[in-house]
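Appendix B: complex inputs.
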Amino acid sequence: EPEVTQTPSHQVTQMGQEVILRCVPISNHLYFYWYRQILGQKVEFLVSFYNNEISEKSEIFDDQFSVERPDGSNFTLKIRSTKLEDSAMYFCASRTAEAFFGQGTRLTVV
Amino acid sequence: DQQVKQNSPSLSVQEGRISILNCDYTNSMFDYFLWYKKYPAEGPTFLISISSIKDKNEDGRFTVFLNKSAKHLSLHIVPSQPGDSAVYFCAGSNYGGATNKLIFGTGTLLAVQP
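Resulting structure:
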């Protein structure tokens, strides 16, 4: 069964460093998303991506965040200068009707 | 702005009985609803969905009911099993919209007691 895969599963980084979270969406899906969940809180929308461009972004998705689909299969989320409050689980999703999520990357900023 | 609300943070049921998880929404543009099951430190797992043109969708032990006039949906799990213990999220989406992002509720922790 096709699935969304995310790497790495866990990333520890120092405050101010750049991180890149990677995702391989389901191949015939057209809509791609990044969400995050801070421990104990709800799953929050970050950004949606369609036709090789951002279609919507949330208030959380400020200038330190960017997304790319560099090679037609991978879908990346870059955080340029990480802050302590960026520590969270980050989930990638892709969608036709139903949206399927990856297993997430736990980002810990120290 | 909480467009999707799950007012019960937790629910406990006995094995074999019915679990009913509730969800309310405010956004009239939502035309597609989804339920997910989630374990800690894992991604949400898709369970079942329903289009706004339907009022019921069933898949095995899972049934979702949609009451559009009340802006309310519910997930029924029958019979409940201990393996169903997890956090359940409902999500609304404007599937026909420009981005069709999912908006999640805050989740309900279901505990199924053996």
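The radius of gyration of chain B is 13 Å.
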